[in-house]
Amino acid sequence: MDLQNEIEARQKVLEKLTSEIRSFEEYDRQLADNAEKLSMI
């Protein structure tokens, strides 16, 4: 595998991880919102 392919492969992995992190952050925000709503009841 040449260097260009290696770089592209790593960028794809990085993009996937970044996307997963965003999903987890959104999930965490929703959990916090739900906890806040529950505390108002």
How does this model look, in words?
The protein is an all-alpha fold. The protein is built from 1 helix and no strands. It is rod-shaped.
Describe the structure concisely for a colleague.
By secondary structure, this protein is mainly α.
In N-to-C order, the SSE pattern is H
Mean pLDDT: 96
The poorly predicted ranges are: none
Biggest pleated sheet: none
Structural class: mainly alpha
- Number of contiguous helices: 1
Question: What's the end-to-end separation, in Å?
Answer: 59 Å
Q: Which assembly state applies to the chains in this document? A: single chain
- How helix-rich are the residues, as a percent range? over 70%
Overall shape: it is rod-shaped
Strand fraction: under 5%
Return Rg in Å. Answer: 18 Å
Number of strands: 0
Main attributes of the structure:
single chain; 41 residues; mainly alpha; 1 helix; rod-shaped
Give me the secondary-structure topology.
Layout lengths: L2 H38 L1
